[in-house]
Prior knowledge:
Blueprint: H1 13-23, H2 26-37, E1 48-49, E2 64-68, E3 71-78, H3 85-100, E4 117-124, E5 135-139, E6 156-161, H4 169-173, H5 175-190, H6 196-209, H7 214-219, H8 221-225, H9 233-241, H10 243-258, H11 264-271, H12 275-284
Parallel strand pairs: 3-4, 4-6
Antiparallel strand pairs: 1-2, 2-3, 5-6
Helix pairs in contact: 5-6, 10-11, 11-12
Amino acid sequence: MNSEVKVPINNKYKDTLFRKLFGENKENALSLFNAVNDTSYTTADELEFTTLESVVFMKAHNDVSFIFDSSMSLYEHQSTYNPNMPLRGLLYFAQLYHKWLPSTEELFAPKLIEIPAPRYIVFYNGNSSKMPEDITELKLSSAFIGESDPGKFEWTATMVNIRADKKRDILEKCQILKEYSIFVEEVIINRQAMSKEDAIIKAVDDCIKKNVLKDFLTSQRKEVLMPLAEFDETKYIEIIKKQTFDEGRMNVVLSLVQKDKLSIEDAAETLGLDVEKIKELMLQNNGSVSSV
């Protein structure tokens, strides 16, 4: 296996776009809120972003969260189907509410503390065969090992399929979400014949010509394409330290592909590599690629 360590380009372009479009623009966030809740609010100034920049115990950040209409909305973006989203959402909301509280001492007072109602939506634009329905609800109780009374200790994550591979109601309700999904679909189609970097560059150029996210892509082109392209010494050192772990992870993924428990496409998405690179690695490790 090639031991050369490279600092990657922007393999999380979908997340970058989603957070910038809906986590930094109140009008866009409100438009998405209206689409999800079938409302028609126009008072974007009343929306307050509460997005967590970092969640220490999870070593991650949530995509977009905000308070509006007496509720706290958390919007996550997912490219892979993940049944653990209810648990992730529960942990995120615990941090969001903790941040929202004026002081933790109030929890011990006899007066009831009123909190914004939670609204947790996961927007999915991965392989549609993993989620054929437009909307599905995942429940935390599905992960319980022991028995519990129905309806108690529940937490849900509403997953909404936003792939632009077919007409979907949610995309017709929010134009900016529709254009975002069209851009992602352009990249997915392009990747069938080219590298991820070339696929993203071509999608940016084509969408600008088609007036899809034109203003945003024109002004944010560099960040969309390669926010990680510049050498980062600290990141490089971290990658060196994790090299052994990453190689072990790659071996596990390739083993799952060889045993037909994971598709070539899902392996590529998991490892952040091109499909052709996965095929090459399979051949190097005497694996089969006949299932591709």
